[in-house]
Amino acid sequence: MLPMNISAVIKQPSAIIPIAVSLAALAMVLSHIALFGVVHEVDEGTAAHLFQLLIGFQISVIAFFAVKWPLRSTRQPLPVMALQTSVALAAPASVFFHKL
Asked: Which helix (H) or strand (E) holds 36?
């Protein structure tokens, strides 16, 4: 098994997809706040349901990456997993911060 560098790991779809999904969820939250403001609705709307689906998909893809890559190499996936985790926490943190 050949050792891979970090740039080779980050270019893999299993590394990029969770980051893209996290950024999409964050963009959706911020655009909803920009368009409608911080509104406390009685019923969850479409944006909330899409957010929940994105977060669920993101968790499963991060879990897939966490299982797949440490088996191939030991040190290179760690910074990528740290980046995925930090970006993954950005969208729920913005929801928590704005009390949505």
From this structure: helix 13-36
The pTM is what? 0.78
Residue that is written with structure tokens 């910074």 in the block = 79
Asked if 21 contacts 64 with a C-beta cutoff of 8 angstroms, the reply is no
Could you say which DSSP state residue 74 is in? S
Instruction: State how far the Cα of 74 lies from the Cα of 49, in Å rounded to an integer.
Output: 36
**Residues 40-52: tens digit of each pLDDT:** 777 777 888 888 8
Residues 6+ apart with CB under 8 A from 62: 18, 81, 84, 85, 88
Measured CA to CA in angstroms, residue 89 lies from 2, 13, 65 at distances of 32, 20, 17
